[in-house]
Amino acid sequence: MTARVVMKLKVVAARFSTPNVLHLRLVHPLRPELPPWEPGAHVDLRLPDGKIRQYSLCGDPDDLSAYEIAVKREDAGRGASIWAHQTLKPGAIAHVSAPRSNFAIQKASRHIFVVGGIGVTPALPMARRLAAEGADVLVHFCARSKAEAPLLADLREACGPRLRTWFTADGRRFSVSELEDYVEGACLYVCGPPRLLKAVQDAATARGWPEARLRSEAFQATLDENFKPEPFDATLASTGKTLHVPADRSLLEVLRDHGIVMPSSCELGVCGSCVCGYTEGVVIHRDAAIPVAERQHRIAPCVSRARVSVTLDL
Ligand code: FES
């Protein structure tokens, strides 16, 4: 598991941003300041069973007296969000890692965000920082309705006229035709469910956006009900040892079974914590963490598999 330092933080405020999104404010009971972070960063929340889930920090990075996260209740999820909603009330202690970022503000002449639902959490501090710096920023925020749009008031306050809302209940559904053609130096950020990411990525490619100017953060595992896992072999480049991965086990599990220490967090192919290199083999990529340009040499062993065999850079 990850070796990141875990802090015991106290919940000092818990309010519902929408009927199913709980917005939490967490402080250190003894220290006045928490470790610094950059907009777009996330923390790991450790659950009582030792598993961890990642949540983007949605507060103000200039205010280190507290961290803020927003947890969407997923009734069909794996239980973490329900546990958080039931347990993390004012006074409760949450085990939270130091922040880490793999979704950061890029150097750009124009910043365009397409945000879906709870995907607003990393986008809010990013847009707030950019707007405060006077950067050229535009945020498209998509949700079912105004009442179901988390952190809407904060985003509105941060962005003002730079915010465009798309609420399907009002007959305003976001269409990828809203996307602009690529202009040299611009950057496009997408955060939300995989379906939104895919639609925007496809439209951006058609409008000439180079992949390097597209940043995305998935907020849900890709559901691929028809996928039938097959067994394969994984060879460790450092020792030449070959491990068999049966159809009912992940590569990550098999590596750990053989004493190989692998970091991980989401175990859903979303966060990128477990990603390692590979040098040979045909990989079946099932994650949403590795950019297409890096898929020829990087694999997310929590969800991805190989056809017949793969040689890992481990
Ligand atoms: S643990 Fe998150 S991508 Fe593998």
UniProtKB/TrEMBL annotation:
Q: InterPro entries, alphabetically?
A: 2Fe-2S_ferredoxin-like_sf, 2Fe-2S_ferredoxin-type, 2Fe2S_fd_BS, Beta-grasp_dom_sf, FAD-bd_FR_type, FNR_nucleotide-bd, MRET, Riboflavin_synthase-like_b-brl
Q: Where is the FAD-binding FR-type domain?
A: 1-106
Keyword check for Metal-binding: yes
Sorted alphabetically, which Pfam families does this protein's record hold?
Answer: Fer2
Lineage top rank: taxon = Bacteria
Would I find Metal-binding among this entry's keywords? yes
Keyword annotations for this protein, in alphabetical order, are: 2Fe-2S, Flavoprotein, Iron, Iron-sulfur, Metal-binding, Oxidoreductase
CDD domains cross-referenced by the UniProt entry: fer2, PDR_like
Tell me what this protein is called: Oxidoreductase
